[in-house]
Amino acid sequence: MDFSFTEEQKKFREEVRQFLEGEIREGLWEPSCDAWIQEYNPEFTKRVAQKGWIGLIWPKEYGGQGRSHVDRLILTEEMLRYGAPAACHWFADRQVGGTILSYGSEELKKEFLPRIVKGEAYFGLGMSEPGAGSDLASLQTRAVEDGDYYVINGQKTWTSCAYFAHYFDVYARTDPEAVKHRGISEFIVDAKSPGLSRIPMIDITGTEAWSDLFFDNVRVHKKYLIGEKNRGFYQVLHQLDYERSGLERIMGNYPLFEAIIQFAKENKLSQEPVIRNKLAQLQIEFEVGRLLGYRVTSIMEEGRTPNWESAMSKVYSTEFEKCLASVAMEILGHYGQLMPGSKLVPLRGMAPHSYLGSKGYSLQAGTTEILKNILAARGLGLPSS
Ligand SMILES: Cc1cc2nc3c(=O)[nH]c(=O)nc-3n(C[C@H](O)[C@H](O)[C@H](O)COP(=O)(O)OP(=O)(O)OC[C@H]3O[C@@H](n4cnc5c(N)ncnc54)[C@H](O)[C@@H]3O)c2cc1C
User: Whose CA is nearest to atom 38 of ligand 1?
Assistant: First the structure.
């Protein structure tokens, strides 16, 4: 197994680093934890688009660069390392664009992919419902045919990026008579559609990154059905493999990791054996998690869809994030509990943000229990539960 990067790839990493460091030097934004999912910054997305770094792996005919999965890994790794505010384009770039590419009609590809690449079309994910999370196949949102349209009624919850998304990737039941996972279809829904409303969900970190969405007779033209009618559940499984495939979980809080090591050095805490031990242990776990992520990329590079490998990577990485946040809180002591914006807050409040946020990391994109079920069944070949 060769983990080294080619000279071209190293050059690309350097180019991305220089771009991001330049942005920070100019004071355009500050590195922050969870920035890939929580930091709304359309100007940043525009600048990334101008570099040609959105849709990097997509075919050139749709505006992409036809680059490799390894190049995309390098790009996302650096974005996460610097805590770059990439939420506007992240979901479209990581998974919705890929779904359109894999299953969408030519018309959909031409309508959406070039706009995503230009940083002009942001997407949120409308999968979960109040009664359908782990068991997504039991979702109740209905889409009923009416001439050239589907009429959607129901509720989605935990919808990411809903306060700025232009579109939602929505799963709805199109055949209530069929076995539950065979009656679901996938749609692109315009966020401005009449009948679609939103209530923000303020989570324990205080962010408004997620929302409840309510569909009241929302009309969606049939051309916005992605893939085949009633095949949506199979498509979402494919998409979730990609959602779990990146380094977001191992590196989503990297700015805190870097800052807490620096803090320990500057405060002579680095002489404390317990602290040295804990930071060294974190570094070991970080490296292991990163390699699990690299393995997922190498699977994609071979043209295969990662499955239990992404599940393993996410389970491991969310545990790392919990440990990182706990160690940071321990090192910072009582001051560590101060939230961003407080006068005496250390490290811009990243530690309590991560500590509180880490409770959700092992739920979003599939809970740890569900991912272990995937690992048991598909990785170990145990009978499905
Ligand atoms: C921060 C955050 C962001 C999110 N972002 C999005 C988003 O952008 N879009 C979206 O659509 N959804 C999103 N979600 C929703 C997320 O996908 C669900 O919360 C998740 O799938 C779990 O579903 P649930 O909350 O209904 O819990 P449940 O499915 O009810 O599970 C409750 C508990 O039971 C366990 N459990 C359930 N079934 C089994 C089983 N078969 N075996 C063993 N244990 C089981 C679970 O592991 C969990 O511990 C987000 C959630 C969070 C917390």
Answer: 134
129 Cα to the center of ligand 1, angstroms: 10
3 state SS of 157: strand
Specify the length of the chain in residues.
385
Indicate whether residue 138 lines ligand 1 (CB < 6 A): no
Structure tokens at 146: 């009416």
> Which residue pairs from 330-338 have beta carbons closer than 8 angstroms and sit at least 24 positions apart in sequence?
330/278, 331/260, 331/263, 331/264, 331/269, 331/275, 331/278, 332/260, 332/263
Angle between helices 350-361 and 308-332 (to 10 degrees): 150
Q: CB–CB of 94/169 below 8 Å?
A: no
**In this predicted structure, what is the pLDDT of residue 268?**
85
Q: Which two tokens stand for residue 33?
A: 């934890």
Question: How far apart are the C-alpha atoms of 367 and 79, rounded to whole Å?
Answer: 25
Query: Is 332:263 a contact under the CB 8 Å cutoff?
Result: yes
Name the pTM for this structure: 0.95
Burial of 374: CB neighbours in 10 Å, binned 0-12, 13-18, 19+: buried
- Report the atom number in ligand 1 closest to the C-alpha of 130: 26
Separation between Cα atoms, residue 111 and residue 81, nearest integer Å: 32
What are the residues whose beta carbons fall under 8 Å from the beta carbon of 143, sequence distance 6 or more? Answer: 150, 151, 152, 172, 173, 174, 185, 187, 220
pLDDT in tens, 164-179: 999 999 999 999 999 9
For residue range 111-164, list pLDDT tens digits in order. Answer: 999 999 999 999 999 999 999 999 999 999 999 999 999 999 999 999 999 999
**What is the per-residue pLDDT across 259-276, written as a single tens digit (0 to 9) for each?**
999 999 999 888 999 999
Name the residue with tokens 């509990």: 337
